[in-house]
């Protein structure tokens, strides 16, 4: 079966493209390389450099490749950036995605796995967050993803379009060949590891006055390889559903920023100097997943639950690629 991976040069997309190849799928990657890295695309995947917002380009790819399903990872995904520049976020995460959906329908491709996010939940009042928790995003990034989930649900009713939205909590860690290389880097674990490497002087903790035990934000860090396995299961599951489904995808364990720093100090054997800064706009205090639905429905089980193991994999990749994919 041929799967088109839109955004397959990015962090999560490239790990999923790799696992699809290893699982015997034929893979076509489409990426505009605005944030992804061509070196991250598996060598056996066919690749097209272009933007999903470009309808004629995408139409040509579908005409040539005839994929049976799509995994859609193309998105801007930084909370702070989305607060500062919402137009760009709605353009990329909603409008461009609509072009992809239109082209899929034109080619009668009605199977999609969509990268959604815990950010759709905003400031949840109940933790852990289940699929029944009301979605109420507090930043444009989360709002753009929730809009797209809604669109997928409507497509399910109107056209028999099948989709699974996977709401990632905090993707982290690395596989043998793939790791985090965002430019600019804003994510906690790679920044901490840059401090450990001496590439940055210190970590700024964004707020220590949240209503959490140590005052810093709590997040649910999930290994990127575990995320990728969920995508394969979800792809197989598309044959057994009608319409749109969604699953929360996390470890089910929360760690504060200070706890992640302590774990990273243990893993690296280096001390991480830090300073306390202002809260980052749009950051909820606590985001921890209930993954009961995906465990029960798809039989998914995270293999790398220990935060030390997750950081250790990221550290190994960072040591081998101190300058990311440029190294
Ligand atoms: N964070 C921080 N300092 C940084 C980067 C992140 O204190 O330099 C915090 C951030 O406020 C959040 C957590 O670390 O509570 C995880 O942030 P990240 O950007 O990695 O992921 P997000 O939760 O935004 O998806």
At a glance:
By secondary structure, the chain is an alpha/beta fold.
SSE order? EHEEHEHHEHEEHEEEHEEHEEHH
Question: Could you give the count of β-strands?
Answer: 14
Termini separation: 34 Å
Low-confidence segments, given as residue ranges, are none
Q: Treating each run of at least 4 consecutive H or I residues as one helix, how many helices?
A: 10
**What profile does the largest beta sheet have?**
7 strands, parallel
CATH H-tier superfamily of the largest domain: NAD(P)-binding Rossmann-like Domain
Mean pLDDT over all positions? 96
Q: Which strand order does the major sheet show? A: 3-2-1-4-5-6-11
Helix content: 25-40%
What can you see in these coordinates?
Helices cover 39% and strands 18% of the residues. The strands form four sheets. It has a seven-stranded parallel β-sheet, with helices on both faces. The protein has a three-stranded mixed β-sheet with strand order 12-9-14. It has helices at residues 11-22, 55-65, 79-84, 86-106, 140-159, 188-197, 224-237, 257-268, 292-298, 307-320; strands spanning 2-6, 26-31, 46-49, 69-72, 111-117, 162-168, 170-172, 203-206, 218-219, 221-223, 244-249, 255-256, 274-277, 286-287. The protein has 327 residues and is an alpha/beta fold. The chain has two domains: 2-172 and 221-249, NAD(P)-binding Rossmann-like Domain (Rossmann fold); 188-219 and 252-326, Alpha-Beta Complex (UDP-galactose 4-epimerase, domain 1), CATH 3.90.25. The two termini are 34 Å apart. α6 (188-197) crosses α10 and α8 crosses α10. β1, α1 and β2 form a beta-alpha-beta unit. The chain has ten helices and 14 strands. The site of uridine-5'-diphosphate has 15 residues, from α6 and β8.
């Amino acid at each position: 079966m041929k799967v088109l991976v839109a955004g397959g040069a990015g962090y999560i997309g490239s790990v999923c493209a790799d696992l699809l190849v290893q699982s015997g799928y034929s893979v076509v990657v489409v990426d505009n390389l605005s944030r992804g890295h061509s070196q991250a695309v598996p060598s056996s995947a066919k690749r097209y450099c272009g933007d999903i917002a470009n309808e004629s380009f995408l139409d040509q790819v579908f005409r040539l490749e005839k994929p049976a399903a799509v995994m859609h990872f193309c998105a801007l995904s930084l909370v702070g950036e989305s607060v500062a520049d919402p137009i760009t976020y709605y353009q990329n995460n909603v409008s461009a995605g609509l072009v992809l959906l239109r082209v899929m329908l034109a080619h009668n491709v009605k199977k999609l796995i969509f990268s959604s996010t815990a950010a759709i939940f905003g400031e949840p009042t109940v933790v852990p967050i289940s699929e029944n928790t009301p979605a109420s995003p507090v930043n444009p990034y989360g709002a753009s993803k929730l809009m797209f989930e809604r669109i997928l649900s409507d497509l399910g009713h109107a056209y028999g379009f099948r989709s699974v939205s996977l709401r990632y909590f905090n993707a982290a860690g690395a596989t043998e060949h793939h790791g985090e290389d965002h430019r600019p880097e804003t994510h906690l674990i790679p920044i901490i590891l840059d401090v450990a490497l001496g590439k940055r002087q210190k970590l700024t903790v964004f707020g220590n006055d949240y209503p959490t035990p140590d005052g810093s934000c709590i997040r649910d860090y999930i290994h990127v390889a575990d995320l990728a396995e969920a995508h394969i299961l979800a792809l197989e599951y598309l044959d057994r559903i009608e319409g749109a489904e969604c699953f929360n995808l996390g470890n089910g364990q929360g760690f504060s920023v200070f706890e992640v720093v302590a774990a990273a100090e243990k893993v690296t054997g280096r001390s991480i100097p830090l300073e306390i800064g202002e809260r980052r706009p749009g950051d909820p205090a606590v985001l921890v997943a209930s993954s009961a639905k995906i465990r029960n429905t798809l039989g998914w089980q995270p293999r790398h639950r220990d935060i030390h193991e997750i950081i250790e994999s990221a550290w190994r990749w960072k040591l081998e690629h101190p300058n990311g994919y440029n190294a």
